[in-house]
From TrEMBL:
Full protein name: MFS general substrate transporter
Gene Ontology cellular-component terms listed: membrane
Organism taxonomic ancestry: Eukaryota, Fungi, Dikarya, Ascomycota, Pezizomycotina
Compartments reported by the entry: Membrane
Domain of life: Eukaryota
UniProt keywords, alphabetically: Membrane, Transmembrane, Transmembrane helix, Transport
Length: 474
């Protein structure tokens, strides 16, 4: 009888412990609930951002297809006029990014991102009715002013919603939509160009008219679909919102979304690691843009033109998406960014080496695959590293902008290193790309060594950013 009483007492204690377990370890008991919230947020936050980014890529690069479908002749794009139209996009892009992220917080994501998207759609539609190259150049500059706010805004929104080691996968998923749109943008433009002659409009004008009008319609839809910042969300119940905000606070010591202040701006822009991050991201994007400009040369050498050339330029992007997802998953799970970036930079080097003219066209095409994978996968990886090591809402916003400055700077450099006088081998451009990829590896090794040293000091009692237990991401 005593044994039975003891057993009943033991069972009672277990039940009482289970009922009170949430008080003992609230983090453990809420883990499943948090995971469900993360999945819900994935489906609510990411799809509109991915669609907007994909549309921006298509609207940005369709000028190449318009050029070969008669725009050169109609607008008298002789000499370097086409290059001027290309380059004017990037300075405007740089100018727009920082004020845009400030206004994003002030006016809310749905209002601001939908506004800039509708605006660049209107600008794109206006390009269909230009009759001289100066008007096109001006509109390309205005296009950069509006498009410049999108990607830093997307990065900032994602980093606001997720913990530090969930960011790479989410940025990777969103960025892969842009990769996919890059792959088949040429095919889409080719199809729209076949409308040439309808209503006495040239095919290149239909590209701008249809894609610009579609962009404006999607912008209106996105206004109703875009999620606000976490603390303003209305699709989460009050209890779920409190749990999720506590989760973000626990992860990074700051969950509130705040406007950029002069103090945070000064602290961030006077930190030498900020500019190393910018420089390395510039190198990555220089190679990415240079690759896009060089691939048509290889395809021409292989005898492909028109629609076949567009399709062959698309294939390297498909395995890139798979590698991007795998790499971002490993990066978040291991909490290691830099080794992934170094590995992808090695792929860039191998790819550009194989693209040299002394190899067969098949080997050069293999080089295109490897270089594309390395370049494209490094973009979200480096963005994620910058966001992971930024503390506070203001610094994350600024670092999103700084990395995008590197993207625009890379676009300017990438459009210049493959010069016409270096055709058909473009040896200086290839070796410049190899050198930049090598600099990325060296820079990441140096940055990683510095972060490792700071973490070792923190283990001995130093406090990073005033947050107990904080460690830099490696």
């Amino acid at each position: 009888m005593d044994n039975e009483k003891d057993q009943i007492q033991d069972i009672g204690e277990i039940v009482e412990y289970a009922q009170d377990y949430s008080k003992v370890d609230p983090n453990a008991t809420s883990l499943a609930r948090e995971n469900r919230l993360v999945r819900k947020i994935d489906f609510r936050v990411l799809p509109p951002l991915a669609i907007m980014f994909a549309i921006s890529i298509i609207d940005r690069i369709n000028i190449g297809s318009a050029k070969v479908l008669g725009m050169t002749k109609d607008l008298e794009l002789t000499g370097n006029r086409y290059n001027v139209c290309l380059l004017l996009f990037f300075p405007a892009y740089i100018l727009a990014e920082l004020p845009s992220n400030h206004l994003l917080v002030k006016f809310r994501p749905a209002v601001w991102l939908a506004f800039i998207m509708f605006s660049w759609g209107a600008v794109l539609t206006g390009m269909a009715f230009t009759h001289n190259w100066r008007a096109l150049a001006f509109l390309r500059f205005v296009l950069g002013l509006f498009e410049g706010g999108l990607l830093p805004g997307v990065v900032y929104i994602i980093s606001s919603w997720y913990c530090r080691y969930e960011v790479h996968r989410r940025i990777g998923w969103t960025y892969s939509a842009g990769i996919l749109s890059s792959a088949f943008a040429g095919v889409l433009s080719y199809a729209l160009g076949l409308m040439g002659g309808i209503r006495n409009m040239a095919g290149w004008r239909w590209i701008y008219a249809i894609e610009g009008g579609t962009t404006m319609v999607i912008a209106i839809i996105c206004y109703f679909c875009l999620a606000p910042f976490p603390e303003e969300s209305c699709f989460l119940k009050a209890a779920d919102k409190d749990l999720y905000m506590a989760r973000l606070e626990r992860d990074r010591g700051n969950s509130a979304t705040e406007l950029i202040t002069w103090k945070v701006l000064k602290e961030t822009l006077t930190d030498w690691t900020t500019w190393i991050t910018w420089l390395l991201f510039t190198f990555t994007n220089s190679s990415t843009y240079a690759l896009a400009f060089f691939v048509p040369t290889i395809l021409t050498d292989m005898g492909y033109t028109g629609l076949k050339a567009s399709l062959f330029s698309a294939w390297p992007y498909l395995p890139t998406i798979g590698i991007l997802w795998i790499g971002s998953y490993i990066s978040d799970k291991t909490k290691m960014r830099i080794p992934i970036i170094i590995f992808q930079s090695i792929l860039m080097i191998i790819g550009f080496i194989l693209m040299r003219s002394q190899f067969t066209n098949e080997v050069r095409y293999l080089g295109v695959f490897l270089a594309t994978i390395g370049c494209q996968c490094n973009v979200p990886a480096q963005i994620s590293l910058a966001q992971t090591n930024a503390i506070g809402s203001g610094q994350r916003s600024i670092m999103a902008v700084v990395t995008m400055w590197g993207g625009a700077s890379g676009g300017i450099i990438g459009s210049l290193i493959f010069r016409t006088q270096d055709a058909p081998h473009y040896t200086p451009g290839l070796y410049t790309s190899i050198a930049m990829a090598s600099c990325i590896i060296l820079g990441m090794l140096g940055l990683g060594s510095y972060y490792h040293l700071c973490n070792k000091r923190a283990e001995k009692g130093a406090v990073i950013y005033g947050i107990e237990g904080y460690r830099y991401s490696l």
